[in-house]
Design goal:
mainly alpha, two-stranded antiparallel ribbon
């Protein structure tokens, strides 16, 4: 009987030890399974974040492409009578065709689609991204040489001589010196009422290369825009048509600015195409300061169609 009790006691100790080991193993298993579950959840969370980033990137790429198509059109055809202005500017020494050709194409002659603007009877202006630099230069010459009170009584001469601005000193594609053609030729005749309209519109149109409106055309884009406004006002286009046309030119001259502005509106749930051209050309959006404020909020956006912005030189 005593031997039986001893054996039972011995087995009881072994069972207790075995239970202890099992409990320890169970605790370890629970701990390891918890760690594994945490690891799996962490990996899933990281994958979800990565998938969301990929999705967001794809959505942004789709948005960017749609905005590009909305902002930058393939071509514009404006019913603006160019007439023989190109021919007259060459005859007067305002423009040197060879210098212009080299500046625009790198060659001594202009291609036929541009050379036609130096013959008679051009009753429309075709604008594309490819010829936008040509129009900067030729309209710059027009704005610089055409006689107008903005050049003779405005900000350009407020400090004395107008010779040292980018729009004057930077004019290197003429046969004559810049100040020899400055506000000299009556290419465009304006009535007193039309002159006031020119001044009004010029004061409302800004450019992102500086903080000045077209009423202070101290760079090539400003002077080119002045020439365009004078030309359209003289042909009795409505203010709305002039702002719309001016925006088209500005978009080609400063593509990144208006692509970024469109993205800014899209983020705010607003449609760029429904904004008035006058508003988009205002100091709030199109001046250097206004655009910089918008860009700081957006950061750098990579636009596939973007080849470069405008510069204040020929």
């Amino acid at each position: 009987m005593k031997k039986l009790r001893k054996r039972f006691k011995k087995y009881k100790i072994k069972i207790s030890s075995l239970n202890f080991v099992l409990v320890v193993l169970l605790v370890i298993a629970v701990f390891l399974s918890g760690m594994l579950a945490t690891k799996v959840l962490d990996l899933k969370r990281k994958q979800d974040i990565k998938n969301q980033q990929i999705y967001s990137q794809k959505q942004q790429e789709i948005t960017i492409q749609k905005l590009q198509d909305k902002v930058i059109k393939e071509k514009y055809v404006f019913k603006i009578k160019w007439g023989d202005l190109g021919k007259k500017m060459v005859e007067d020494g305002v423009l040197d065709k060879t210098k212009l050709a080299k500046a625009v194409t790198g060659k001594d002659e202009l291609p036929k689609d541009l050379d036609k603007y130096f013959s008679n009877g051009q009753n429309k202006i075709e604008l594309t991204q490819a010829n936008s630099q040509f129009w900067v230069d030729i309209l710059w010459g027009l704005g610089l040489a055409n006689k107008n009170e903005i050049l003779e009584k405005g900000e350009m001469v407020r400090g004395g001589s107008a010779a040292n601005f980018a729009s004057t000193g930077g004019w290197t594609i003429g046969a004559k010196q810049p100040m020899d053609i400055y506000s000299k030729y009556k290419y465009i005749t304006l009535s007193e009422k039309q002159q006031k309209i020119v001044e009004e519109i010029a004061g409302n149109i800004y450019r992102p290369c500086c903080g000045n409106s077209t009423a202070f055309p101290d760079c090539n884009h400003g002077m080119a825009m002045l020439g365009l406004i004078e030309l359209m006002v003289s042909q009795n286009f409505s203010k709305e048509e002039i702002y719309k046309t001016a925006l088209a030119f500005n978009v080609y001259w400063f593509p990144q600015t208006y692509l970024d502005i469109a993205f800014h509106f899209d983020k705010a749930g607003q449609d760029y195409s429904k904004k008035s051209p006058k508003e988009l050309l205002s100091k709030t959006f199109s001046s250097a300061m206004g655009y910089q404020t918008i860009r700081e909020k957006l950061g750098d956006i990579k636009w596939p169609a973007l080849q470069g912005g405008g510069s204040c030189g020929a």
